[in-house]
Amino acid sequence: ASTPSGPGGRGWGQPSQHPRDPHLFDQDKEYVGFATLPNQVHRKSVKKGFDFTLMVAGESGLGKSTLVNSLFLTDLYKDRKLLNAEERITQTVEITKHTVDIEEKGVKLKLTIVDTPGFGDAVNNTECWKSVADYIDQQFEQYFRDESGLNRKNIQDNRVHCCLYFISPFGHGLRPLDVEFMKALHEKVNIVPILAKADTLTPNELNSMSLPLFWFDFKQQIHDSIPFAVIGSNTVVEAKGKRVRGRLYPWGIVEVENSAHCDFVKLRNMLVRTHMQDLKDVTRETHYENYRAHCIQSMTRMVVKERNRNKLTRESGTDFPIPVIPGANDTETEKLIREKDEEVQRPHLECEPEFVWDWGILHIELSDSAQSNCGNECVHVTEHTYTQSPA
Amino acid sequence: ASTPSGPGGRGWGQPSQHPRDPHLFDQDKEYVGFATLPNQVHRKSVKKGFDFTLMVAGESGLGKSTLVNSLFLTDLYKDRKLLNAEERITQTVEITKHTVDIEEKGVKLKLTIVDTPGFGDAVNNTECWKSVADYIDQQFEQYFRDESGLNRKNIQDNRVHCCLYFISPFGHGLRPLDVEFMKALHEKVNIVPILAKADTLTPNELNSMSLPLFWFDFKQQIHDSIPFAVIGSNTVVEAKGKRVRGRLYPWGIVEVENSAHCDFVKLRNMLVRTHMQDLKDVTRETHYENYRAHCIQSMTRMVVKERNRNKLTRESGTDFPIPVIPGANDTETEKLIREKDEEVQRPHLECEPEFVWDWGILHIELSDSAQSNCGNECVHVTEHTYTQSPA
What we know:
- 2 copies of one chain form a homodimer.
- Chain A is of the alpha/beta class.
- Chain A has a domain at 46-272 and 354-388: 3-Layer(aba) Sandwich (Rossmann fold).
- Chain A has 10 helices and 9 strands.
- The first copy, chain A, has helices at residues 24-27, 37-48, 64-72, 85-90, 130-148, 176-185, 203-208, 264-274, 276-313, 330-342; strands spanning 50-57, 95-104, 107-115, 162-167, 191-195, 236-239, 242-249, 252-255, 383-388.
- The first copy, chain A, has a 6-stranded mixed sheet with strand order 5-4-1-3-2-9, sandwiched between helices. Chain A has a 3-stranded antiparallel sheet with strand order 6-7-8, with no helix packed on it.
- In chain A, strand 2 and strand 3 form a beta hairpin.
- In chain A, helix 8 crosses helix 9 and helix 9 (276-313) runs antiparallel to helix 10 (330-342).
- Chains A, B: One of its GO terms (molecular function) is GTP binding.
- Chains A, B: It holds the Pfam family Septin.
- Chains A, B: Residues 48-298 form the Septin-type G domain.
């Protein structure tokens, strides 16, 4: 770049008047101002608001509802009706959706909790994860239809961003059902395994548990250290004159937010404070993109087949365009499909360099009492429930 | 929500030990943490970096290059070769693209300037805006192909986010060519009209200029106050002992960044510091969506026509799926098309309530000397030029 220079020795230049902003140039010296771009993005995101869809899965009584209420300081299951033993015999896996609008420091979050009551509770649980997988696929399909449609202005995005999967502490590690569930779903959704009711395990027992999560490729660094177990409770107890959330036993108080007792705080930090946006981005960029690519591949193959069949029967030589990939011919399409097949896309959480993951074997326990502990900064605006049962 | 309560009178609870984090609960009291979401978005946007594509249009010599260099404190036209009178006779409108990576306070911006040398310079300028409109459409088309394709990981987005259109100060307002240009393009791109070389006009002359920009629906509030004129200069002169960018005349110094002299600062504030992200969002959500809807409508109509023709000739009754709108049948598709046709989408910049627009008739003057004035915070990383001529 050339060096700027003033006219220097020329004598006829008179300093002009500065009626206002005399120091403007000095203040803004050599500052274009595009450094404000992240702030523009920040402001627009606050104005628009956020949404997050969290799925909880695992057998009844492991404290799924309590953990969710503890995490978001809300009461999502006010009108929940627990089934009696007789009713449970005929119960099938259903999917329920609770949505709540919460606000904190001016930031609005539309939180949707997708629950799977009845999961793993039957005598024969063969393919009971199927309705969960179907639900996730249906949301992808709906979004694919919407984003391929004409009017994309008010698309409602119901894609599941994260699934907390609850593992029983009594199984000496993973049971076959757990393995099957995670095998079936880990390429569709970000799974965070939770070791439930961990206050029945001493630290030694926790450490000696064998949890071969080999198939879980969530993040390289935490490959060996998940699942993580957290203690949740919505009951406030007194400890050392302070009111803390925890569980009161004759032998002591389990404090939920004490990281020596459990790693509830670590889970919350990951899920809400540092990686909520990451979980959304991975859902959008990896899980959804994989689903979409498979869809397009089958559609393209179908159309190519149709076209070839029609070439034999039709009289006119007009060709149909291949849908969705405008401009690509047969060979290009097949090449793209091959490339895509070869490219194994695994879910991979983006690693923020300033945040070092430190997930040990964490302990979690989930209290049965689902009392809400709603703070002042949490404003409930609306709450509605939508229930979907598989046909 | 129910009120949380401790066990109260039960006597056997002992306060537990607090080996670490004794104040954790108090510090984080009733704070979930999703208020960090905008910061997560902020951090990710900085990490990813930004891009912006700015088009400049207007006849030669109005100072387009100087204004761009003044705005971004860079030197985008180092290797520009000015044509002589003979060469200009055969010159047609071409489109050149300059890209520069600049950085400011850790924020990276990939700035692309699309220039239109030769625009309006010929004897007969009939439809000389056509190559500009074609260029914009081509970028939309390329993006439509890319976002409809299988692999959407590394899409390069070349859509034009803003067009600075330079109006000559000698025309007593808009000339027919100006009107035709803006009529043809204002539904494809955000146009910001610039009154060039405004230091040839006194404030009274500026105010009396008739500029009927009725067709420009950029923003309701500024409907009456655009175009705005700005003075640009890359030459540093001394005024009152201070070094400022400006133009030195025997009768005084025109200071570029003095808002009593001109509104260069206002243009820069709008374009870079407050509404750069808005211009990108309007391009994406309105201009591109309109282009895409028209594309889909023609494709759908074509396929429906094909299908009907084939129904007469084909023996098999198999139907082809309509491309791009999976699941929609003929009637739905036609209904959607009708709805879309009825919905007149006009470009509309989002109004930030905290930012009140204050565009008067601004004065701009564009110095001829295209000297770069590159500050310390501007780091040039790469620069490449790509030239595209219409066939």
